[in-house]
Amino acid sequence: MSTAPHADPNFPPNLNIAPLHLAGTAATPDADAHGQAAAIARYGIAGRVWEATAALVQYLTPGAALEPACSLFGNSSAPHRVLELGSGQALASLHLASQLPRSDTVVLTDLPAVVPLCEASIAAWSAREGGEHARVFARPLAWGEDIDSVREFGPFTHILMCDLVYFPHLYPPLLRTLLELTEPESTPTEGDTFGPEIIMAWKSRSLALEESFFDSFGRYFELTPVLGGGWDEERIFVCRRWRVTEEWRLPSLKQVMAPQPGVVVKRSFGLVDDLFAHLEWE
Fold it and tell me: Which is one Gene Ontology cellular component term of this protein (predicted)?
């Protein structure tokens, strides 16, 4: 797929993608369980189920033998407030909603033109699962723009990302939105990290391009790889914001990819050399 900016990022030039049939969905080449062919025609790349979804579904399942274990299934009695960025078909987040009680909230977000797809997914899920699970809402949220549409549901305890790191021109707005969603109400004074937990599922498609996102992301967030999944090319990270000082200010969209003052990073971070080249995943 092209990485050049386009009027609608869900319809890049020369779009040519086919539905992805994940194991366990009862989908066959002749019977698409998620209506992807029609959704791709209407919503572009947002209508497809992407490869990292299977790994994220596994992680968002109680009892999965992965390390670190998913914190959403711990002993905490506080309600969970989960937001997903770029939800599209929202398979993983709706799977999660089925595992959570009614006191928890899951908010699906995407571009305004894609919200009807999220709403259709919620309707199909609700009809199938009934009303004894987490409450689920869909809201428009364009990366890099104001997050007012979701403020009523915060502060969030978790943020989900599934296969969002692909177009380089979208790295700055994605990173800016992540920072705004995780901004502290006051300057943290204890611990190395703070704020909502980000659960990021990702499959590399061009590490030479993606390195710039992760190098910038690592200046703001600690990344902990999830081990034990036996995935081929997919990866999951659990991430939290590095502690900041009173010098910290939320950077502008133009500045967000560059190092910013006031972030207390606890280790040197170089994605390819420090993490991928030397990490034993299994």
Answer: cytosol
* In the chain, domain spans: 50-276
Burial class (CB in 10 A: 0-12, 13-18, 19+), 258: exposed
Q: Looking at this protein, which amino acid is placed at residue 80?
A: H
- The domain 50-276 is placed in CATH, from the list 3.40.50.150, 3.10.590.10, 3.40.50.1240, 3.20.20.70, at 3.40.50.150
- Of 201, 84, 85, the C-alpha closest to 143 is 85
Q: Angle 171-181/207-220 helices, nearest 10 degrees?
A: 20
The pLDDT tens digits along the chain (282 residues) read 334 455 788 999 989 999 998 876 655 556 677 889 999 999 999 999 999 999 999 999 999 999 999 999 987 678 999 999 999 999 999 999 999 999 999 999 999 999 999 999 999 999 988 878 999 999 999 999 999 999 999 999 999 999 999 999 999 999 999 999 999 989 988 899 999 999 999 998 888 888 899 989 999 999 999 999 988 889 999 999 999 999 999 999 999 999 999 999 877 555 545 555 544 443
The Cα 115–Cα 89 span in angstroms is 10
Residue 224: closest CA among 192, 177, 256, 181:
192
What type of residue is 122?
I
pTM of the predicted protein model: 0.92
CA distance 159 to 65: 21
